Amino acid sequence: MGLVESLADESKKGAVIADVVKLVDEEVSSKGGLSGIALKAGYAAVKGVKPGFVQSVVKKLLPEFAAKLDPFWTDGLKDGKPLAYMEREKSRVADALLSVTDAKIDGAQSDTVKSLYKKLRGSAKKNVEEAVPRLARVVEKYSA
User: Fold this and answer.
1) Are residues 2 and 70 in contact, defined by beta-carbon separation less than 8 angstroms?
2) What is the pLDDT of residue 50?
3) What is the pLDDT of residues 13-22, one digit of tens each?
4) How far apart are the first and last CA of the chain?
5) What one-character-per-residue DSSP string does the chain give?
6) Exposure letters 100-120 (e unless 16+ CB within 10 A, then b)
7) By the 8 A CB rule, do 86 and 72 touch?
8) What's the whole-model pTM score?
9) Which among 38-42, 114-118, 135-139 has the top mean pLDDT?
């Protein structure tokens, strides 16, 4: 079973989504400095769009994220150390994941979400790269 199928498995899909949302919450809350303040404010605004908004976005984008992560996970398995491989390739992993959100943002229904994404996009790659080790652990948890 490939990563896409593993993460889409209905018996664990809810747990995958909950863990990814928790990962995002924890990553955002761990940010400091001025860029952290901006990120936290932006994330709070996005969460305020409607109840469950972040969960619904994760659920909607999970199949595309899984498809983007699958080649990295597969190569990491071949390497024998998928977590280390993804961390080593964190720049490429971040680019792959951000390609999904970049492609979707113009179709977003919320002007607030569009505006905040465009304001925060410049620092997004660094933030996603920093989240890759945690993300790899989530992938590992559900990949079998």
Assistant:
1) yes
2) 84
3) 999 999 999 9
4) 8
5) --HHHHHH-TTTHHHHHHHHHHHHHHHHHT--HHHHHHHHHHHHHHHTSSTTHHHHHHHHHHHHHHHHHHHHHHHHHHHT-HHHHHHHTHHHHHHHHHHHHHHHHTT-S-HHHHHHHHHHHHHHHHHHHHHHHHHHHHHHHH--
6) ebeeeeeebeeeebeebbeeb
7) yes
8) 0.91
9) 135-139
Q: From CA 66, how far away is CA 3, in angstroms rounded?
A: 6
Which amino acid is located at 113 in the chain?
A: V
Can you read off the two tokens belonging to residue 84? 């280390």
Q: Are 7 and 66 in contact (CB under 8 A)?
A: yes
pLDDT of residue 44 exceeding 80: yes
